[in-house]
Amino acid sequence: MTTRVALIGAGGHGLSHRRTLQRLLDAGRIEVAGLCDRQPVAAHPDAPLDGAPFFTDHTELLSVTRPDVVVICTPPHTHLALALDVFAAGADLLLEKPPVMSLAEHEKLASSCGGRILQIGFQALGSVALAELCAAEPSGEIGVTGAWWRPDTYYQRAPWAGKRLVDGRPVLDGALVNPFAHALMQALVVADAAGPEFRPVTLELERYRTRAIETDDTTFLRLTGADGRRITAAVTLASPVFIAGEIRVGEAVLEYPTDRLRLPGEPDFRHVPGRAGLLENLLDHRRDRTVPLLAPLSRTAGFTAVAEAIVASPAPEEIGPEWLTPHPDGGGSVIAGIDSLVREVADTGRLPSETGVPWARPGHRVALGALPAH
Ligand SMILES: NC(=O)c1ccc[n+]([C@@H]2O[C@H](COP(=O)([O-])OP(=O)(O)OC[C@H]3O[C@@H](n4cnc5c(N)ncnc54)[C@H](O)[C@@H]3O)[C@@H](O)[C@H]2O)c1
């Protein structure tokens, strides 16, 4: 019998899931049980999903259509409650990243699966380039960079964008926990592969903003593991110069958004094609449990611990207008020289306040608790 798949949260990023559903429907791999969104969602020519019933209430979708598999693509602070309803309805689940808001929610989710399959939407974990980097067991300090530009409109795209609270409830946004979340997740996976399991024990953080938002658009993080190994991440959404993003481990470098890899001794980057789809992988695992899940919840505990500590830390510091220049296209300002700075921080492991960057402020330090056992 064909697997019946439903989608909760069909607007916004849900369009990418509608495209996947259309592709798998056309290939005869699934039936689309139904779509759900609180808002009306316009059909898209790439993914018309003709005839799929539409619901505004997920409980009605679940009780009427009885799907085998559900994809949840709603804002992070809504994930846990929706996921519990999906498990109560007996369906397997692909839950968008970040899965949950805290380690307490992680444990609640883990203990509520009741034997159902749970995959988390960190699609970069399906990267063949990442697998090749991990298999090479690179050694050395880990540095993560990324320098992008996001105009003011980016922070108007969703009610929770750029916010710390919505309706009095915490939400999860900020450069490293949202747009660069895949970089952080991949760096934690690489650290696990590069030695004994990486257990972050200390987090040192500098968060900055260039505009009137509640969260950060420029983030520097140093994570120290129980064995002394470190991951230093430096990312910004306020750069005039684009750096796609790199994870550097000693002499190995993965340009993670493009799957370009350079292993020690190799002169140049080479493209390593291949990304396994997370829904396809979940369907394969459903059919044959010897096929491993690429992004099970257990793999994301370190990410959740770090994300929880970041959003619970003091509000980001504003970088004053004297350090900013308007972006040539309008829509906000950029930090002059930030592209060089993110590289320097990731390469040296020293945060901006430790190297005399004039707009930098002393960082925030947190001791992280134990992660749940895998
Ligand atoms: N994997 C990725 O690369 C990637 C990229 C972008 C976003 N995301 C994740 O996807 C999720 C959604 O992000 P977004 O930017 O589309 O958010 P969004 O705020 O635009 O929400 C998506 C949709 O969910 C709907 N929605 C909200 N609550 C609902 C509910 N209770 N029932 C049904 N529908 C509901 C909204 O109406 C909206 O259409 C987030 O977890 C985000 O982090 C992942």
Task: Explain this structure.
The chain is an alpha/beta fold and 374 residues long. The chain folds into 2 domains: 122 residues, Rossmann fold (3-Layer(aba) Sandwich); 215 residues, Dihydrodipicolinate Reductase, domain 2 (2-Layer Sandwich), CATH 3.30.360.10. It contains 9 helices and 20 strands. Strands 7, 10, 11, 12, 13, 14, 15, 16, 17 and 20 form a 10-stranded mixed beta sheet that branches. It starts with a strand and ends in a 7-residue tail after the last strand. Bound molecules: nicotinamide-adenine-dinucleotide. The site of nicotinamide-adenine-dinucleotide has 23 residues, from loops. This is Gfo/Idh/MocA family protein. It comes from Actinoplanes sichuanensis.
The percentage helix is 25-40%
Percent in strands? 25-35%
Which class of secondary structure composition applies to the elements?
A: alpha/beta
- Compute the number of structural domains: 2
- The low-confidence runs, each spanning 5 or more residues with pLDDT under 50, are none
In CATH, the architecture of the largest domain is 2-Layer Sandwich
Protein name: Gfo/Idh/MocA family protein
Pfam families: GFO_IDH_MocA
Task: List its salient traits.
single chain, 374 residues, alpha/beta, Rossmann fold, Dihydrodipicolinate Reductase, domain 2, 2 domains, ten-stranded mixed beta sheet, six-stranded parallel beta sheet, 9 helices, binds nicotinamide-adenine-dinucleotide
